[in-house]
Amino acid sequence: MTASVHAARLAQLNVATLLYPLDDPRMAPFVEMLDPVHTAADGAPGFVWRLVEEGAADATALRPAGENVIINLTVWETPEALWEFTYRSGHLEAMRRRREWFERHVEAHLVLWWVPAGHLPTVDEALERLADLRANGPSPNAFTFTSSYTAVEAAQHLRAVPQGRP
Known about the structure:
Blueprint lengths: L2 H4 L1 E10 L10 H16 L3 E4 L18 E8 L2 H9 L3 H6 L13 E7 L6 H14 L14 H10 L6
Antiparallel strand pairs: 1-3, 1-4, 2-3
């Protein structure tokens, strides 16, 4: 591996539009999963960081993408570590049941991008990456699991694109 690969981490933003308020009884099974899923993420191999509202255990009260939209913003050491947690842990149960709690998205709701090790992405940065993916499709700047780019490709893209352009 090159030094640039070691110096990069994978950031992830996921947005979900609630069908009901979090305090609605129909959301209780989802709300009950939050602590165990977050605890599993925090202890998962390759986990680096997740956004948590100050004084809270999670970020569900933050609504920067809309009143009924919750966000999940995390950083991982590798795409493989994020994939393993997402699809091979207790998180999968929440994924399987998501239609009970969230609207079906007609546009991208998950975006991945590379950040320098030690950088914690802001919510604004994450929403900009999601907007980029929605507007321009996958690129080294904003991608998905199925259309991924390496940290090296992302670094080359950043060097080749003029400042201020995606």
